[in-house]
Structure prediction request, 453 residues.
Amino acid sequence: MEAEDAIQQQQKEIEAGLNEEIMKSVSKSLLRQFVSSKPLSFKSFIRERLASTPSNSETNHRRKFPSFYKPNPTSMQEETLEVLRWWYWRPTSASHQRHAERTLLQKLRTPYTLRNVKVSTGSKNEPEEHIHTLILGKGPPLVLFHGFGSGIGLWIANLDYLASNHTIYAIDLPGFAASSRTNFNPTSISDAESYFTSRIERWRQNIGLDRFHLLGHSFGGYLSSLYALRYPDHLSSLILADPWGLPHRDPDLAPNPNQKFYQKWLRDTIAYFPPLSSLRFIGPFGPRAISSFRNDLVYKFRKIFPEWHEEEKRNKGKGIKEMHPIINYLYHSNVATPATGERAFHKLVKDMGWARAPLVDRLPELRMDVRVTMVYGKESWMSSEAGWEVKRRMEEKGKTNVRLVEMERCGHHVYIDNADEFNRIVGEAMEEKERDEEVVERKPKSKQLRKVW
Prediction:
């Protein structure tokens, strides 16, 4: 009996010491998480708390652990999210972004793979960087660039159709969503443009693509155009979906010179910070803000998530308890720090949305053999006038493989406003180019035969 009592007393002492070590680890880690400007990833969050505790196999005290320390990935993730909500102003992490992304991608019918493709040069002074890549389908390659503040998840209404005849490579642009974020701070327009195009080119080399079709939406259309101008040898065709950055600033929309001092100060202050700084500033209220200001996206994706749309209708507009998958994905893809992609984009913008170096003057210089298709929404806030001007200038130079389409009843997000029609237009643009290349490939053979005979 005395031996059993001694063993039980020893076990209690071990448990008391273990709990004390756990609380010390939790306190230190949560304090670091609270004061740090860079959020911990999910794995680091758990690893740091368990670093000073014996393993479960050695202590057999799993029942004494708080629930979020149990080695069950689902419960750990859920409990960690709750801890972060209370102890960190921006309730997000890399694991939350991955979970939000998987929620969208599970709607795909086509098998897919995700890769983080290295794009750093290997220099000792350069941090490790990667571009998050979604790959699916089989056929000629098509690369997708998303718009500002977006990610690969917003292509879910287009991926299955496009992957039926092509191999899709959808990327998170450098500095956005799940791609690497560094402390890069551009000092000029060319510096910001090179940040994107150089990393995209290294991505192309490392993933092993030679020639491909390139589709870009909004800011992704701007970057697609820059890449096409700098690396035309690798493009089969260029497809711009409601592209940003083509026109010069409209003089009629210039700031009012008679603004009061506080109005000008407020405008300049807002323009000084990266575009999504306000979303980070409001912290845990960010998801609600996105849901309020971008509720149109919830409606646009109603066919992809009919269960959410039906539940919202049943609640008669009172909302639902959980965050919509699209809102959840946008939030966790945009509030992470550092704001690398935003800072580079900010250097390219002036006067609240106009490009400092408009493409209307540069895109007509694109090489003659690159087929160009521009797709605009007729109800978009992005005017198609600059697109028509680019088409006119290209045709004056003798470039005939340029097409511009305006989609009825579509706004800026043409890829989801009428996904079926958009998919058809993109498919036709690639098929036309592929037919042209087949004809060109046959010509040398026929000429050679004539010479022989």
Summary: Residues 2-35 form the longest helix (34 residues). The mean pLDDT is 78. The chain has 18 helices and ten strands. The beta strands are 112-118, 130-137, 141-145, 167-171, 212-217, 235-241, 349-350, 354-355, 371-377, 402-407.
